[in-house]
Amino acid sequence: MAQLNEVFLMGNLSRDPRVNRMAGGSVVANLSLALNRSFKGNDDRQREEVCFVDVTVWGKQAEWCGEALKKGSRVHVRGHLKQEGWDDKKTGEKRSKIIVEAERIQFLDRKEKVHA
């Protein structure tokens, strides 16, 4: 059976990008994307909810994100879901979360569209 792991998101950064250079020289940027959704509730009143998604960007795209983006910047992300795991330093328990690993970032706030 075929499988599909592809994500398309458009939203605003909820904080400035966090860019780090790894020991091997790779560059990684961690973004937090806020996704707003408006809908009508059961009572016919307009409602809005926000979902926050962590996005990881690698390489030259990560550098561009660090240079061009800031809290509030609007972006379009194409990527895939990835599960990250770690040991909690306080409790020693195994922890995990699902993130989006970006394959392409499009900056939407700039006059000229930049595809990272």
Characterize the structure shown.
The chain is mainly beta. The protein is built from one helix and seven strands, in the order ββββαβββ. The protein has a domain at 1-81: Nucleic acid-binding proteins (OB fold (Dihydrolipoamide Acetyltransferase, E2P), Beta Barrel), CATH 2.40.50.140. It is 9% helix and 59% strand. It has a five-stranded mixed beta barrel. A hairpin with a 6-residue loop joins β5 (74-87) and β6. The longest helix is centred in the middle third of the chain and has 10 residues, at 59-68. It is globular and about 55 Å long. The two termini are 32 Å apart.
Question: What are the main properties of this structure?
Answer:
116 residues; mainly beta; OB fold (Dihydrolipoamide Acetyltransferase, E2P); five-stranded mixed β-barrel; 9% helix; 59% strand; globular
- Tell me what the CATH architecture of the domain at 1-81 is: Beta Barrel
Enumerate how many helices there are, as a single number.
1
**What spatial order of strands do you see in the largest sheet?**
1-3-4-6-5
Structural class: mainly beta
Mean pLDDT: 92
Contiguous uncertain segments of 5+ residues: none
Q: Write down the CATH topology of the domain at 1-81.
A: OB fold (Dihydrolipoamide Acetyltransferase, E2P)
- What is the CATH top level name of the domain at 1-81? Mainly Beta
